[in-house]
Amino acid sequence: MSDPITPAISDRICKHMNEDHSNAIVLYAKVFGNLSETETAKMESIDPEGMNLLATIKGETVPLRVKFDHVLKDSEDAHHTLIDMVKQARTSHS
């Protein structure tokens, strides 16, 4: 069974993404946030409609909201959506 996206689930997802998938977050900022010069990025929070990132460009931190293409049902949907977005970003960024 999957969990609804509560603040605690958001924190868990963000911690995992920031620790293990920082390159994916940079791709989200570059491709879905149209910030092609992003050097580093951090996921601050995630909710059913999108994610809030902090992108670093030329030493300046820029807040960024990336909306999902659908409203997430639960944490499992978030997991699959984030993976699909990375695949899409890699395809369009290469």
From TrEMBL:
InterPro entries, sorted: DUF2470, Haem_oxidase_HugZ-like_sf
UniProt superkingdom: Bacteria
Domain DUF2470: 10-85
Protein's name in the database: DUF2470 domain-containing protein
